[in-house]
């Protein structure tokens, strides 16, 4: 019998575990030596004490997730040596904020460099080099942060923090762009978005980021955008009676009011001033009766609060989703625009999970402004880990079963295993790899996204109306 090709089962497991899988990748990102080095550079650690910087980091990022409340006791529960909550609180100072911020940027860079190949989004990646889903969310902070993150004032909170998020959908990459004062409007952030895009990439964002000049910059870079129409901005089309004459204003509501079609499109429209020369495609999609009524009721309530009455034209427009894009029809067919824009709701789900499970908007600190800021960066770092898990699981699940992984289920599992994950990271070594691989197998089996068989999901609709025929 030839025994050269016979592999011992134990040896086979060792060979499999030695491959550069997600467990090894995640473990390589959390190196105690690197955290200690950064702690010295930021002057958080001037001499070695009872609380080690690596334990302090993973305690803040993960140990508190499993606790009923985000307490200092929960953070210190994973430390090697027992530590009082007062000692933990004293370690939150101006150097801690810088420490967590630097480590967040380093970890984010590592995970982006090791992003998996596109899985379910591979067909979409064949049309656009990247699909950026851009949005922001805000949450109230303790009043002690009013100077750093001022709120809107009045009846609103004195302090409010806004997170600007870029979620690259084809590879599931998560990138918080900035922490900003909550009173800063999204429209003021729009000029910064153009710098994110490279030629051939597409950005989808809501009308809060409406900024025609930014659209022009994106178009000049040969990148693309997809966004709803902002009613305060005029649209212009060629005069049907005098095609060579100056453009005339497009009366969108009037056209839609007399239309019996479920989709109305204008292939060549100017945004704002026709002299700027920015041409886009505009398409209006009729909403279902249920959705249209919901939008109209919300509009009427909003107008009542302002002491006004909704006009007939406003009520008509509330029954339509009106989108515009500079992407050519061969890249993004008009019939697929609404389905692709629906993908942007993934960002809303991301914010929901970050608040529900990572509790990024919660803190027990009231006066220690350094602890509050540090906890925000710690939650964001935990969010990067969550996105990394989800992105790699998505690729594995698509390869094995052609199924999607539920972001919410992964977030819930990470919260449940927060304390054990923190302790495993502190313990390190082979035990850490074994636990990470065990958790990986558990997630791959238990986080498959459920679906209604009688209802098509977004990917099936995109396939039907766009990707599969191509």
- Strand portion, in percent? 5-15%
Note the gap between the termini. Answer: 53 Å
Tally of contiguous helical segments: 20
| Percentage of residues in helical conformation | 40-55%
* Cross-sheet strand order for the largest sheet: 3-2-1-4-5-10-9-8-6-7
Strand runs, count = 10
| Main beta-sheet strand count, sense and barrel state | 10 strands, mixed
Helix/strand/pairing category = alpha+beta
Order of helical and strand elements: HHHHHHHHEEEHEHEEEHEEHHEHHHHHHH
> What's the average pLDDT?
84
Q: What is the 3D form?
A: globular
Unreliable runs, pLDDT <50, ≥5 residues? 1-19
Radius of gyration, in Å, reads 25 Å
List keywords for this structure.
470 residues, alpha+beta, ten-stranded mixed beta sheet, 10 strands, globular, disordered N terminus
Nutshell version of this structure?
With 470 residues, this protein is of the alpha+beta class.
Please provide a written account of the structure.
This protein is of the alpha+beta class and 470 residues long. Among the domains are: 17-112 and 364-446, no CATH class; 225-342, no CATH class. It is 47% helix and 14% strand. It is built from 20 helices and ten strands. The chain has helices spanning 9-17, 22-29, 32-41, 53-61, 72-76, 85-90, 94-113, 122-125, 186-193, 212-220, 252-257, 289-305, 312-317, 334-342, 345-356, 369-401, 407-416, 418-427, 429-446, 458-467; strands at 131-140, 160-168, 173-181, 202-204, 224-228, 235-237, 248-249, 263-271, 279-286, 320-325. A ten-stranded mixed sheet has the order 3-2-1-4-5-10-9-8-6-7, sandwiched between helices. A hairpin with a 7-residue loop joins strand 8 and strand 9. Helix 4 (53-61) packs antiparallel against helix 18 and helix 15 (345-356) packs parallel to helix 17.
């Amino acid at each position: 019998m030839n025994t050269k090709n016979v592999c011992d089962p134990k040896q086979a497991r060792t060979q499999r575990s030695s491959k550069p899988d997600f467990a090894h990748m995640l473990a390589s990102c959390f190196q105690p030596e690197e955290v200690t080095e950064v702690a010295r550079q930021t002057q958080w650690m001037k001499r070695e004490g009872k609380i080690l910087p690596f334990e302090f980091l993973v305690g803040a990022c993960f140990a508190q997730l499993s606790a009923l409340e985000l307490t200092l006791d929960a953070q210190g529960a994973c430390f090697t040596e027992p530590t009082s909550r007062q000692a933990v609180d004293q370690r939150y100072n101006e150097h801690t904020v810088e420490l967590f911020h630097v480590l967040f940027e380093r970890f984010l860079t590592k995970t982006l460099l090791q992003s998996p190949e596109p899985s379910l989004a591979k067909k979409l990646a064949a049309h656009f080099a990247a699909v950026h889903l851009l949005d922001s969310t805000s949450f109230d902070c303790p009043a002690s942060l009013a100077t750093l993150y001022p709120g809107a004032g009045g009846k609103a909170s004195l302090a409010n923090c806004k997170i600007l998020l870029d979620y690259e959908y084809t590879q599931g990459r998560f990138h918080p762009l900035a922490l900003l004062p909550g009173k800063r409007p999204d429209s003021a952030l729009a000029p910064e978005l153009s710098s994110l895009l490279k030629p051939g990439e597409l950005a989808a964002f809501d009308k809060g980021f409406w900024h025609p000049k930014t659209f022009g910059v994106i178009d000049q870079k040969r990148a693309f955008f997809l966004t709803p129409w902002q009613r305060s901005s005029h649209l212009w089309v060629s005069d049907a009676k005098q095609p060579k004459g100056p453009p005339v204003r497009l009366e969108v509501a009037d056209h839609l009011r007399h239309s019996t079609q479920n989709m109305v499109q204008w292939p060549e429209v100017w945004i704002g001033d026709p002299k700027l020369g920015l041409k886009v495609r505009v398409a209006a999609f009729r909403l279902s009766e249920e959705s249209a009524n919901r939008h109209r009721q919300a509009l009427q309530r909003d107008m009542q609060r302002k002491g006004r009455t909704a006009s007939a034209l406003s009520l008509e427009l509330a029954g339509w989703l009106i989108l515009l894009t500079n992407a050519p029809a061969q890249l993004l067919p008009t019939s697929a625009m609404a389905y692709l824009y629906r993908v942007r709701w993934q960002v809303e789900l991301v914010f929901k999970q970050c608040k529900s499970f990572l509790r990024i908007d919660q803190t027990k600190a009231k006066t220690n402004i350094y602890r509050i800021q540090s906890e925000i960066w710690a939650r964001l770092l935990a969010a990067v880990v969550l996105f990394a898990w989800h992105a790699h699981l998505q690729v594995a699940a698509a390869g094995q079963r052609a199924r999607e992984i539920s972001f919410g289920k992964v977030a819930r599992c990470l919260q449940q295993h927060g304390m054990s994950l923190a302790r495993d990271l502190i313990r390190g070594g082979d035990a850490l790899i074994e636990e990470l691989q065990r958790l990986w197998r558990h997630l791959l089996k238990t986080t498959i996204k459920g679906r209604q068989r009688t209802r098509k999901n977004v990917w099936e609709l995109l396939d039907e109306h766009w990707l599969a025929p191509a």
